[in-house]
Amino acid sequence: MSLNAVIFDLDGVICSTDRFHFLAWKELAGQLGLPFSEALNDRLRGVGRAESLELILAGCSRSFTPAQKAAMCEQKNLRYRQLLCQMSPADLSGEARGALLALRRGGLLLAVGSSSRNAPFILERIGLGGFFQVVADGSQIARSKPDPEVFLLAAKRLGQAPQRCLVVEDAAAGIQAAKAGGFWAAGLGAAASCPGVDFPLRSLAQLPALCAANR
Ligand code: BG6
Ligand code: MG
Question: 40 with 111, same domain?
């Protein structure tokens, strides 16, 4: 397999931001008189901001102009960023920290490939600003997952072919993106049973041994 690099999704893999997305979207949906549930929030994993809004508005009979939708995304994001300020290095689990350090000691190149435009801010908040060789995020791409663009960008900036990179994901859209780009895919949580997953994971702690066995 000759793995040289690991490209991590951020939200739901390195740290959990689910509860903040949930609160910010729920507030917006409430103002529009729309329902918003944990189940719908789960469907937004890995999906870009504007695409997420479309899924929330799918249940609404009113139509909105592109400017109104942009204002809704902006409002949600301002609230989301306010909530993200609660995050600190304590939001990086010992397990994630240990796995990242072990992979780096093992000589793997490490990158983030996230649909989120807030990825650099979140990495700073949890004490990982400057840790990764490459951070490819939602502000640098035209098409969000399940399109492979963000992972292809990360691999290119690492100087590695997709076949030399393992993508670690918690979302179906992310697994689809990894496979569409020609990457190896490790799935965490619900994504462990997604079609196409090469390595189902129970925990990030499994990664160093998995990578060492496939170098
Ligand atoms: C992904 C999250 O990482 O980023 C999605 O899983 C989110 O839930 C997407 O919609 C875009 O994030 P942001 O921070 O740019 O709104
Ligand atoms: Mg994710």
Answer: no
Q: Among residues 38, 53, 84, which one ends one of the domains?
A: 84
Partner residues linked to 15 by β-bridges: 11
Q: Which residues line ligand 1 (CB under 6 A)?
A: 10-11, 21, 44-49, 52, 77, 114-118, 138
Predicted TM-score of the model (pTM): 0.95
Ligand 1 pocket: which of 115, 117, 124 to mutate (most atoms within 8 A of CB): 115
Distance CA 122, CA 166 (A): 22
| Cα(214)–Cα(63) distance, integer angstroms | 51
Q: For 43-68, how does the pLDDT look when each residue is reduced to its tens digit (9 = 90+)?
A: 898 888 999 999 999 978 889 999 99
Q: CATH number for the domain including 94? A: 3.40.50.1000
Residues 177, 206: one domain? yes
User: How far, in Å, is the centroid of ligand 2 from the Cα of 96?
Assistant: 14
* Dist CA 74 CA 53 (whole Å): 11
Count of domains in the chain?
A: 2
Q: Print the domain residue range for 110.
A: 5-16+89-213
Residues with Cβ within 8 Å of 60's Cβ and at least 6 positions away in sequence, in order, are 32, 34
pLDDT of residue 172: 93
